[in-house]
Design goal:
This protein is an alpha+beta fold. The chain is 38% helix and 21% strand. The strands form four sheets. Strands 5, 7, 8, 9, 10, 11 and 12 form a seven-stranded mixed β-sheet that branches. Strands 1-2 form a two-stranded antiparallel sheet. A two-stranded parallel ribbon has the order 3-4. The chain binds 1-O-phosphono-alpha-D-glucopyranose (G1P).
Length: 276
């Protein structure tokens, strides 16, 4: 519900907050499309209509841009509606991430599938979810995208218990959702990217509400890990939590500094701020 970003998210879905000039959800969908994913189901909820409009065609705007000769802008907005086959499903109540994933069961059927959380973006030369797909191709079992986050941050994430948190691909012994520093087995956190075996659906159906009274994906994955191998893969790239104010600002700066037309003036401005 975007409560960490109020009041901006009172009427605007948090996934529509722009990083420079692209809504966060567009960056996430682009990552999936670049990884070769062609069919995407976006689980939405009340007040998220703007997301559907964003990926739809907008004939009036297209006509206007055509008339004004704004070919580049036109191309840019046409590309958005062609990124992938996008489907939507509304989660009728915010019962938790595990429940949101469970909503996708009939769309997915019996294939392994990728999950990308709408407020985690990853800047990487190989799209993060593609890196996980490659590990899945080798292991044939559930893969979680992880990175070490520092002990002071473990309470914000799903945390992996494993023998070797420094190894790039390591088997998960156990998962805990948002443990305290004392409870945490490591500082290896699950960061919003997953390739999951469809066996998760029958598990999620039986998963009771956990931390915060929500049906947690982490709890479902923990049960899965007790039955089949689940792998933690430390992906390459920098991940931003754009649902968090500081994470949002960091992502905005990183993405802006990578834009040729913006970087020189922005750098100048930033150093002038530093001198103040
Ligand atoms: C969710 C998951 C958590 C994961 C995190 C990554 O938490 O429940 O396991 O580490 O995303 O961003 P949320 O941030 O939605 O509370």
């Amino acid at each position: 519900m975007g409560t960490r970003f109020l009041p901006a998210t009172k009427a605007l879905p948090k996934e529509m907050l722009p990083i420079v000039d692209r809504p966060t959800i567009q960056l996430v969908v682009e990552e999936a499309a670049e990884a070769g994913i062609e069919e995407i189901l976006i689980i939405t909820g009340r007040n998220k209509q703007a997301i559907e409009d964003h990926f739809d065609r907008n004939p009036e705007l297209e006509d206007l841009l055509r008339t004004k000769g704004k070919e580049e802008d036109l191309e840019e907005i046409l590309k958005i509606s062609e990124l992938a086959n996008i489907f939507y499903m509304r989660q009728k109540e915010p019962l938790g991430l595990g429940h949101a994933v469970f909503c996708a069961r009939s769309f997915i059927g019996s294939e392994p599938f990728a999950v990308l959380l709408g407020d985690d973006i990853v800047h990487a030369s190989v799209p993060c979810i593609k890196q996980l797909i490659d590990v899945y191709a080798e292991k044939g079992q559930t893969v979680l995208g992880t990175q070490r986050v520092g002990w002071e941050n473990v309470h914000k994430y799903g945390i992996v218990d494993t023998d070797d948190p420094d190894s790039p691909v390591v088997r998960v012994k156990q998962l805990t959702e948002k443990p305290s520093r004392e409870e945490a087995a490591s500082d290896l956190a699950v960061l919003g990217r997953y390739i999951i075996d469809p066996a998760i659906f029958s598990i999620l159906e039986q998963t009771a509400p956990g931390r915060g009274g929500e049906i947690q994906l982490t709890d479902g994955l923990n049960t899965l890990a007790a039955r089949h191998p689940v792998w933690a893969y430390s992906f390459t790239g920098r991940r931003y939590d754009v649902g968090d104010r500081l994470g949002f600002l960091e992502a905005t700066l990183e993405y802006a500094l990578r834009r040729e037309e913006l970087a020189p003036a922005l750098k100048k401005f930033l150093s002038s701020l530093q001198r103040r």
